[in-house]
Predict the 3D structure of the following.
Amino acid sequence: MDSGNLTDLPGKLDVMMSVLSKLGYAAVGLGSGDARLGGEFLSKAKENKLTVVDVPGSKDDRLIPYLIKDVGGVKVGVISFGAPLPDTSVDDEVIRKIRFEKFKEARSKSDILILLDQAGVAANDWLSRNAQRIGSPDIVITGSNTRGIIAERTVEKTLVLPSMHQGKDLGLIDVVIDPEKAPELTFKRVTLNEEYTEDKAIDDQVKEGIISLTNRPAQSASDAAPVNTAAVHEDGFQSKPYYSPMLCKACHASEYEDWAKTRHAKAIKTLEVGKNLTPDCLPCHSELYRSSRSSMAVTNVPAGVECASCHRASLPHGNERKDSKQRAKVDPKLCLECHTKSRSPAYNEKTYFPQVTHANKNAATPVAASDSRK
């Protein structure tokens, strides 16, 4: 099962839901990204026979408050406290009451109760307070946005587990049931690395899904299709597949938001405003143009000097990059392709480069390729 926050990208739903179904997932919860997709998320789950559980007061019948599954004679309950769907009109007080009632109901029907907690309700004090009143869950799987939880812990009789980041780990729980005792729970974290053989069918499906996502009809600079030629053009830039920053955002959300605030992300808009969407300026202002020699107007979509512009050495990547230490370093010399003496005479690596590194959160607004003089 998964506590939720699977994606906020509609294009990824088909492949994600299909893969989860093939892996035999019994239930998924609702995270904030899933909830924003609303009915589309629930429809894709239903098509793939996946059960979505949550109790925030939505009237959508594709959503159930909890699931009770018989596993070898043991009644395993799964309940979720997640993000509200767009059609949820009840206030926070009513949501709390609904959660209380449904939790108590699920607890009474379950030998083992698992709480998927994207909403962050089951904090230590909540677990301690309710252990005597209504009973506590046996297992809590926290949300992807939970802060401060980096390892499993036990509160009263509840095993609290952190989310597994970016699918790099798999959490396994062995449960021993003794009618005379509380359930005995043993947690094990398995790191998914090259030691484990890929399922070829699923691996191929994921790759096809990525291709499908990048091959969507181009509507903005962040939606264009990849080009697989390797021609070197007169301006010195080589054609290569185009990787939309929206693909990167799915796993690197904070880095995406960090980039979206920079002038790199506004490089195309700068040309539009200055009426300089020309072959002379586009190679430095548009990753899309550098890749495919095509460009288009953008509105409020961040576009220009993008993830692939700086991190091209690490693309594409998938399961072979589960080890977070395998990160491609960004070579500052890449900047010199555009920040030449004629285009960017004020360029200074010592002051410019640190301003566009993700770790430098408090840096001033970067001076990027959008300052090139044409």
Confidence is low (pLDDT under 50) at residues 217-235, 360-374. Strands lie at 52-53, 63-64, 66-71, 74-81, 112-117, 139-142, 153-155, 158-161, 169-176, 184-191.
